[in-house]
Amino acid sequence: MPKLQSQEKPRFYWQLLFSLLMFVYMYLPILVLAFFSFNESRFSASWEGFTLKWYQQLFRDQRILSALQNSLIVAVSAVGIAAVIGTLMAVGLARYRFRGKTLYRGVSYLPLIIPDIAIAVATLVFLAVVQIRLSIWTIVAAHVVFCLAYVGLVVSTRLADLDPHLEEAALDLGATPRQAFLQVLLPELMPGIISGCLLAFVLSLDDFLIASFTAGSGATTLPMEIFSRIRTGVKPDINALSVILMLISGVVFFLAESIRYQSAEKRLKQ
C-alpha cells in the first residue's frame, strides 16, 4: 500500500503574535506622533495636508534653541566628568582589594535603582544645606551622580571580559603602572567607555525630573521647556521636536551598539 504522506497542521505561533502586539503597543504612538508632526493643522484631531513648516518654525524658536544649548552643556559636562571618574572607579573595583569593597560597590551603583525623585529631592536638600546657589552647574553635578553609575557599570562589564594578566605582562616587560594603564588597559576599555558615555548622554539629555529640581533661574533644559509648553496642549512644533529627539536617541543607541558589536567581534577573532 502506498504510504500516506502526513500533512502537518499549520502551527499558530503565539509567541510571534505576542511579540507583534507588543511592538504595535510600544511603537504605534510614536508613529502617530511622527505622522502628525507633518500635519498642516495646528490641532492633531484631523489631517489637513503635508507640511514641513513646524520643523522650520522649530529651528527659528530661540527659546527651544537656548534650552537645547543648556541641555547639551549639561549632558556633555556630566558625561565628561563621569567618564573619567567612572572608568577609574570600575578599574579600582576590578583590580584592587581594600576594606569595604563590597559595600562601596553596592553604594556606587545605587543610582541605577533609586527613583529619580529621590535623587532630585536629596540633591536639592544637600544644595540648600551647603547654601549653593542653583544654576546650570548644579544640574551638571546632579547628573554626574547617575551618569557615573551607568559608565562604571558598562566599563566594569568590559573589564570582566578582559584577560586580567594583560597589565602584569606589560609590567614584566618593563612598563610602569601608568604606562600599563594608558597604553595597554585603556585602549581595551575604550569601546566600553564610549558605549557607557553614549548611554549616559542620552539619559542626561532626556532627564526632566532631576533637572527641574536642581535648575536655577534661566537654566531651562529642553525637557523642561517641552513640559512647560504641553501643559496647555500638544502643538505640532512639539511633535516635530519629539521626532528629532527620538531620531537623535536612536542614532546614539545605534552607535553604542555598533561599537559594542565590533568590540565583541574583535575579541572573538583574537
Automatic annotation (TrEMBL):
Pfam families: BPD_transp_1
Main location: membrane
Domain ABC transmembrane type-1, residue spans: 68-256
PROSITE patterns reported for this sequence: ABC_TM1
Membrane topology: Multi-pass membrane protein
InterPro entries in the cross-refs: Bact_Polyamine_Transport, MetI-like, MetI-like_sf
Location(s) in or outside the cell: Cell membrane
Regions crossing the membrane: 12-38, 72-94, 106-130, 136-159, 180-202, 238-256
Keywords: Cell membrane, Membrane, Transmembrane, Transmembrane helix, Transport
PANTHER family: PUTRESCINE TRANSPORT SYSTEM PERMEASE PROTEIN POTI
Family the UniProt entry places it in: Belongs to the binding-protein-dependent transport system permease family. CysTW subfamily.
Protein name in the entry: ABC transporter permease
UniProt source species: Floridaenema aerugineum BLCC-F46
